[in-house]
Amino acid sequence: MSDEKPFIHPYIPNSVPGVKEQMLREIGVQSVDELYADIPERLRFRGRMDLPEPMPSEAALKRHVETILSRNRSCAESLSFLGGGCWPHYVPAVCDEINRRSEFLTAYAGEPYEDHGRFQALFEYESLMAELLDLDVVNVPTFDWCQAASTSVRMAGRITKRNEALVADTAGPDRLRVMQNYCRGVMSLVPVRHDPATGGMDLEDLAAKFTDRTAAVYFENPSYLGFLETQGTQASGIAHARGGLCVVGVDPVSLGVIAPPSHYGADIVCGDIQPLGMHMNFGGGQAGFIATRDDERFVMEYPSRLFGIAKTAVEGEWGFGDVAYDRTSFGVREKGKEFVGTAAALWGITAGVYLALMGPQGMRELGQHILQKSQYAIKKIAGLPGMKVPRFSSPHFKEFVVDFTATGRTVAEVNRALLERRIFGGADLGPDFPGLRGCALFCVTEVHTKNDIDALAAALEEVLR
Amino acid sequence: MKPRAFHQAKWDEEVIFELSAKGERGIIVSPVEKGIEDEVGDGISAVPDSLRRKVPPALPEISQMRVLKHYLRLSQHTLGADLNVDIGQGTCTVKYNPKINDALAASPKASEIHPLQDESTVQGALEIIYRTDLFMREISGLDRFSFQPASGSAAILAMASIIQAWHESRGEGKTRDEVLTTIFSHPSDAAAAAVKGYKVVTIYQTEDGLPDIEALKRAVSARTAGLLITNPEDTGIFNPKIDEITGIVRAAGGLCGYDQANANGILGVTRAREAGFDMCFFNLHKTFGTPHGCGGPACGALGVVRELTDYLPVPVVDFDGEKYVLRRDLKHTIGKVRSFYGVFPAILRAYAWIMSLGERGLREAANVAVLNNNYVLEKIKKIRGASAPFAPGRHRIEQVRYSWETLTKDTGVTTEDVSLRMADFGFHLWSSHHPFIVPEPFTIEPTESYSKTEIDEYLAVLKQISEEAYRDPAKVKGAPYRSVVHRIDQAWFDDPAKWAITWRAYLKKHGNSD
Question: What ipTM was estimated for this complex?
Answer without folding.
Answer: 0.98
